[in-house]
Amino acid sequence: MLLAVICVFFCVSGAFASSEVVYKGPKPKKDLPSKLTALGIQPAGTYFYDRRGKTDPFKPFVAEQEETTKKERRKPRTYLETLDLSQLDLIAIIVGPKGNFAMVRDAKGIGYVIKKGTPIGIHGGVVRQVKAKEVIIREGSKDISKKLYALP
């Protein structure tokens, strides 16, 4: 019964509705400069952004991990080149007339002897110097502009 009443209501209301469609046309464009001058504001000239010498504002500050080509990153030749320096412990330093040597230990407890020129670390590090109380290792690092810097 309720359904029949609703159906009759829509049919009757549709019969009395006008079937004419009136086209009003496009809306007129607003004249913004004349409104600004009426308020006492002078519109500035056309602004042109010159990006020379400026960084891209939409580029993230953190450098993205980029795919390295085979030429840039070579396959590690030794086990020490697969470890990060934070995974190694300096155990001993030997200073002698035949040269200076040091021993480092990995997380597994295995020791390795290193000397000047030994490649070490995942960032292309090389042992630069073995002193009586320290070992100096130099690694490369890339900054946000993707330039390679040698760290001291």
What is the tally of beta strands? 8
Arithmetic mean of pLDDT: 77
CATH class of one domain: Mainly Beta
- Low-confidence segments, given as residue ranges, are none
SSE string, helices as H and strands as E = HHEEEEEEEE
Entry keywords:
alpha+beta, 8 strands, elongated, 152 residues, three-stranded antiparallel sheet, 14% helix, single chain, SH3 type barrels, 24% strand
Question: How would you portray this structure in words?
Answer:
With 152 residues, the chain is an alpha+beta fold. The protein has a domain at 79-150: SH3 type barrels, CATH 2.30.30. The protein contains 2 helices and 8 strands, in the order H-H-E-E-E-E-E-E-E-E. It has helices at 2-16, 32-38; strands at 89-96, 99-105, 111-114, 119-120, 125-130, 135-138, 140-142, 148-150. A hairpin with a 2-residue loop joins strand 1 (89-96) and strand 2 (99-105). The chain is elongated. The model has no long low-confidence stretch (mean pLDDT 77).
Q: Brief overview, please?
A:
The protein is α+β, with helices and mostly antiparallel strands and 152 residues long. It has helices at 2-16, 32-38, and strands at residues 89-96, 99-105, 111-114, 119-120, 125-130, 135-138, 140-142, 148-150.
